[in-house]
Specification:
The chain is α+β, with helices and mostly antiparallel strands. Among the domains are: about 5-90, Uridine Diphospho-n-acetylenolpyruvylglucosamine Reductase, domain 2; about 95-215, Uridine Diphospho-n-acetylenolpyruvylglucosamine Reductase, domain 3 (2-Layer Sandwich), CATH 3.30.465.10; about 215-335, Alpha-Beta Plaits, CATH 3.30.70.2190. About 35% of the residues lie in helices and about 20% in strands. The protein is built from 17 helices and 18 strands. The strands form four sheets. The chain has a seven-stranded antiparallel sheet with strand order 15-12-14-13-17-18-16, with helices on both faces. Strand 17 and strand 18 form a beta hairpin. Helix 1 (about 5-10) packs antiparallel against helix 2 (about 45-60), helix 7 runs antiparallel to helix 10 and helix 8 packs across helix 12. It is globular, with a radius of gyration of 23 Å. The relative contact order is 0.12.
C-alpha cells in the first residue's frame, strides 16, 4: 500500500489534504516561508498520530508537526523538496480535565491558548500564559517553542507552567506522561526535553498544565520615560515595591506605539502632549490577591513616588478593567501593526536587564553606521530581559532589496547580543530562521550534545528535518 492510501485508512479521506486544499498549511502566517509537501494529514487522536508516524517511518518520509501555524521562525513550515508530510494537530482540540483540587488542566495539543484560558476562567482559575496570537496559536506550538509572553515575570515560560506531557515518539510509540505531580525525581526529565524541541524529537499531543487562583484585583498603567535607563530603574523600583504581585513590565518604543495608533485608528494615544513626546514607554501591571483597594493604594504609592522623583515623566493609570484592556490592546497590536507596515528583519533576543539600555544604544548606532536610515522597532518583556529588536528598511526605500541584507543585519545584531552575554532566541524558537546561526554562538560541546539527543530520540532523522540543527550534521 502506498503512503497516501495508508494515511487515508488511518484518518479518513477527508483529513488527508493534497493540492489546493493543502496550500494554507504550507506557508507561515507572515508569508516568509513557503514549502511543499506530499500531503497534510489531520489526525483526530494521539493514537492516530502514532499510526501516522509509524506509516511515515515505514516509508522513510519526513514529518513536519504543525499547530496554529503562528510561529515566527518557520519551524512549522515544510521545506521545498515536497517529500514530507505535514501533521496538523488542530483536531486534537479537547479540554480533557480541569482539576481545581490540584489546580491543573489537561488539554490536547490542538487547543488554542484562548480556549485553555477560557476553560480555566470558567473554573474560577487562571492559566497565565498570554500572547498576542492567543486566539490562534495552539498549546502544542506554545510547548514546542517554550513560549514566553507577557506574564513570564511572575509565572514563568510555558515550561514552568507544565507538569506532564503526552508525546508520540519518533518511532510511533506513545509516552503517557500526563502526570500532575509537582515533584517527580525518577530519572531524566523527559518533559523538559520535549518542551522547546520544536517537533524535532517527537510530537506533543497533550499536556497537563498548572492553574492559579484568579487575582481579586489588577492594576495597570502606561508609563512614559525620557530614556531606557529610567525604564530599567522603574522596573527595579516595581520589583521592590510590588514583589511577587508584579505581573508584567512591557517595554515599548515611541516608534512602536506611534505605529499602532497610525495603523489602527480606533486605538488612541493614551498620553497628552508631554507624555506623547517621550522615546520610551512601559506597560506595568500588578495582580493582587487581597482587595481592589489594597491593590490601588499600593500601586499609586509606588508609581506616584516614581513620578515625584522624576523617574516617570507621565503615567496613565487604568481606572477600570476596560481601560486596562485598552492599554494592553496597544501592546498586543504591535505585531499586527508591523505586519501591515511591511516586512522587517526580526530578532527575538534575551539580554541581561542591567545591560539592556547599553545594548540598544550601541546596536542602534552600529546598524545606522552600516545601513543608514534603518528604522528600529524595539519592544518586549523588559522584566525578563526578552527584547523584540526588529529592523525595518529606511522609509521610502526598496523593502525587497533591504530584506536581502538579512544575513548581514542578523550577524551584526546577534554578534552584539553575544557580546552582551545574551541569547539569539528568547521565546520564538530556532526553526529554519536561526538553525545556521547556532554554531556561531553555541559551543562545540553544546552542539555535540544536541546532536546526540537528536540521534537517540529520532534515529531515522525524520522529525521536522532542517529545524533547530542541521540534519546534515546528524
Amino acid at each position: 500500500m502506498n503512503l497516501l492510501a495508508a494515511l487515508q485508512d488511518i484518518v479518513g479521506t477527508d483529513h488527508v489534504l493534497t493540492g489546493t486544499a493543502a496550500q494554507p498549511y504550507l506557508t507561515d502566517w507572515r508569508g516568509r516561508y513557503t514549502g511543499q509537501a506530499l500531503a497534510v494529514v489531520r489526525p483526530g487522536s494521539a493514537e492516530q498520530v502514532a499510526q501516522v508516524v509509524r506509516a511515515c517511518v515505514a516509508h522513510q518520509v519526513p514529518m513536519v508537526p504543525q499547530g496554529g501555524n503562528t510561529g515566527l521562525c518557520g519551524g512549522a513550515t515544510p521545506d521545498g523538496q515536497g517529500n514530507s508530510v505535514v501533521i496538523a494537530l488542530t483536531r486534537l482540540n479537547r479540554v480533557l480535565q480541569v482539576d481545581t483540587a490540584d489546580d491543573t488542566i489537561t488539554v490536547q495539543a490542538g487547543c488554542t491558548l484562548r480556549e485553555v484560558q477560557q476553560a480555566a476562567l470558567e473554573a474560577d482559575r487562571l492559566f497565565p500564559l498570554s500572547l498576542a496570537a492567543e486566539g490562534s496559536c495552539t498549546i502544542g506550538g506554545n510547548l514546542a517553542t517554550n513560549a514566553g509572553g507577557t506574564q513570564v515575570l511572575r509565572y514563568g515560560n510555558t515550561r514552568d507552567l507544565t507538569l506532564g506531557l503526552e508525546v508520540v515518539t519518533a518511532d510511533g510509540e506513545i509516552w503517557h506522561g500526563l502526570r500532575g505531580l509537582r515533584k517527580d525525581n525518577t530519572g531524566y526529565d523527559l518533559r523538559d526535553l520535549y518542551i522547546g524541541s520544536e517537533g524535532t524529537l517527537g510530537i506533543i499531543t497533550a499536556a497537563t498544565l498548572k492553574l492559579y487562583p484568579q487575582p481579586i484585583a489588577r492594576c495597570t498603567a502606561m508609563l512614559a520615560f525620557n530614556d531606557m535607563p529610567a525604564a530599567a530603574r522603574m522596573l527595579a523600583r516595581a520589583r521592590k515595591g510590588f514583589g511577587a504581585a508584579l505581573t508584567g513590565f512591557e517595554l515599548i518604543s515611541h516608534y512602536c506605539l506611534d505605529s499602532v495608533t497610525r495603523q489602527f485608528e480606533q486605538l488612541k494615544w493614551p498620553f497628552d502632549e508631554s507624555g506623547r513626546q517621550c522615546p520610551w514607554y512601559a506597560l506595568l501591571e500588578i495582580s493582587d490577591s487581597e482587595s481592589v483597594e489594597h491593590a490601588r493604594e499600593r500601586f499609586e504609592a509606588v508609581v506616584g513616588q516614581a513620578i515625584e522623583d522624576g523617574e516617570v515623566v507621565d503615567a496613565v493609570i487604568a481606572a477600570s478593567i476596560a481601560q486596562s484592556n485598552e492599554l494592553w490592546h496597544l501592546r498586543e497590536s504591535i505585531p499586527l501593526a508591523e505586519k501591515q507596515m511591511g516586512k522587517n528583519i526580526k530578532h527575538d533576543v534575551s539580554i541581561p536587564v542591567s545591560r539592556m539600555a547599553d545594548f540598544v544604544e550601541q546596536t542602534n548606532a552600529h546598524l545606522q553606521a552600516a545601513f543608514a536610515g534603518v528604522r528600529h522597532i524595539v519592544f518586549g518583556h523588559l522584566g525578563d530581559g526578552n527584547l523584540h529588536y526588529n529592523v525595518a528598511a529606511p522609509a521610502g526605500s526598496d523593502e525587497t532589496a533591504f530584506l536581502r541584507l538579512q544575513p548581514q543585519v542578523h550577524r551584526l545584531v546577534h554578534d552584539s547580543v553575544h557580546a552582551f552575554g545574551g541569547s539569539i532566541s528568547a521565546e520564538h524558537g530556532v526553526g529554519q530562521l536561526k538553525k545556521d546561526l547556532l554554531p556561531l554562538y553555541k559551543s562545540d560541546v553544546e552542539l555535540a550534545l544536541m546532536r546526540r539527543i537528536k540521534r537517540a530520540l529520532d534515529p531515522h532523522v525524520l522529525m521536522n528535518p532542517g529545524k533547530v540543527i542541521n540534519t546534515a550534521d546528524i
